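Support reply, case 0932

Customer input (verbatim):
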Amino acid sequence: MKYSINGYITATTGKREELLKYLLEAANEMKNLDNCQCYIVGTNDEESDNVYVFEVWDNEEAHKASLTLPVFQTLIQKAKPIIAGLKSYPPLKIHGGKGITN
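Our regenerated output:
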């Protein structure tokens, strides 16, 4: 079964577009990881500071390992100063569905 993470990151006031840029950079880099099945970034027009992320991985270990890669460490360091909060929903075991491809 696949492993997923979903939730949202709240940017400091007025910094959502900058945070969105970093998360879209991460999404682009995820294309290079075979064990990342899905990395979707979205926003809600009624929430001016939140950016939502939905990820599907081969397993939890693959997700944890990705966080140690230099490219993602760099993006995390860039984004940290503008992150006001984080809300994660319970991890899911994925039984089926369809991901987005670009």
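We compared this against your earlier run and they match. Two observations from our side: The two ends are 24 Å apart (CA to CA). The beta strands are 2-11, 36-42, 50-57, 83-88, 92-94. Please reopen the case if you see a mismatch on your end.
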